[in-house]
Amino acid sequence: MSDAKYFQTTKRGEIHELKEELHQLDKSKQKEAVKKVIAAMTVGKDVSMLFPDVCNCMQTPNLELKKLVYLYLINYAKSQPDLAIMAVNTFVKDTEESNPLIRALAVRTMGCIRVEEITEYLTGPLSKALRDDDPYVRKTAAICVCKLYDISPELVQDQGFLDLLKGLISDSNPMVVANAVASLNEISESSGIGNIFALAPEALPKLLAALNECSEWGQVFILDAISVYETEDSKEAESIVERVTPRLQHANAAVVLSAVKVVLSFLNIVTNQECIKNVTKKLAPPLVTLLSAEPEIQYVALRNIQLICQRRPTILANDTKVFFCKYNDPTYVKMEKVDVMVMLASEKNVEQVLLELREYAFAEVDVEFVRKAVKAIGRCALKIERAAERCVTVLLELIQTKVAYVVQESIVVIKDIFRKYPNQYESVIGVLCENLESLEEPEAKGALIWIIGQYAERIDNAQELLEGFMEEFGDLDVEVQLQLLTACVKLFLKKPDSTQAVVKQVLSLATTGSTNPDLRDRGYIYWRLLSSDPERARQVVLAEPPQVQYDSQRVDNVLLELLLRQVSTLASVYHKPADTFLVDSGRQAVSRAAASSISLARHLGADDDDLDFWECNACTLENGAEATACSACEAPRADAPLKKRPPPS
Asked: What is the pLDDT of residues 513-525, one digit of tens each?
């Protein structure tokens, strides 16, 4: 029978029975009793009163029983610190055992028992373990130093454990090296020092040497450490990229993303254009391969790919089809794929992208995903002017389906296209007005009202359409009421002879019939403008609206630089700095320091001339004044004007 039987007992008086069984001389029965105790502890029962009885079972050569007892001790040592000290002698004795598994187990358990009274007894055994002949003991001891530092940093420094840990970076066993790196990383972050190279400046060659022989998680630790190494030497950066590139072919997604992080970090320093071109080509296949993994890994990969594409859009420029959605993709994966498709859309492939998005809008049953597809069509129109007409045609086809949520989303999108390309696609207004009855959502109503007001002189029945909305003025959302108020004033200014009654009615409803301060204020402003200076009212109300711009960058450039340093972490999935979702810690302090260092480098660490920049027309990345081509997409500067960064706050 499996160990599940230990979780199925509900007997009364169980604690008394367990106490008797723990004092059995038969080791097999003793082991059974400890298993029952662990099972009870796992399901939430309080078995702390058995602490002395369980401790009596520690004196055994049986490794399985010893592991069970140590597990119990780790769980209850905090609540029973006085009794935990009773077990110290056994721990110390176990660190002298001939069996390396028992030595490592004793050191690990002492490190996990986070009780300050025990730490002073840990220093001697830990010092021996760091010099142990067996690599398994050394790698366990390396992690234990990090745990001890969390409890007592002064003790670690006084006892020289940091120096011993640095020495382990040169260890002959790659797993020991990986654990030493992981421990030093954690210590440097929690202490606010910044990175491992502040503690061990000469570590880089040793880390690169150990990289090929480590386990996959050891490689992740080492790659994460290498990614924060700072150098200004192009040749050194090129050498690091060359050593790390083979990791891109690893089967583990974590290793791949960590390798991508390192490569992207050092490509910014490499000046050899041929090297940059070759490495960029090698980055695409591993990223594409990640999309064949489980949906959860796909999602993480897609969130990271969005950041990578913003920095270097050419990497996946020829792989747009890879991001087309499959029928069995979860919705959360489809949503991210659509975002990447729009980011990669260009004049060469926009027709393919539009056909794919059109298919989603027509064939999918998931409402949110259909809305996302319709919005994506609109974003393509805003991004690529030559494709705008084709996008409008597709949107009109979608409106003809008469599906309410499709029609409403399409109208919202078309409003943005009108603002981006004024006086080009107004011929479709008639089709939009025919669908007035199907509008239920505030955003869609507001969009259509804006269109009617903006082009009132071209719509014969504009007054009739607006009056239809005014009949339910009190029931409309505030944003729709505001839009309706402005549209009626625009209508009056364009057709003053026939619309006086309409504008009076709407101004009255806004000022005396509403309790919303924003609506009342706007109503009074319009009323006073119209009554005192109609010409000035015309200049204000009928002013040309600002064009809607396609925002290709989902995050600003400073934040993007920070997130690219944190690829394969939660920060790159949330697209937020770590300090926005983590409790205050050393790691958070490092995140803030990294963000501020990027900002300072951009503002304070440069000459006055370096504060000037020009914005790439293709990808909107900010480039220094001296750059002749975009560092992300390699587009030439052309006639992009120089801009001035605001002074740092």
From this structure: 888 899 999 999 9
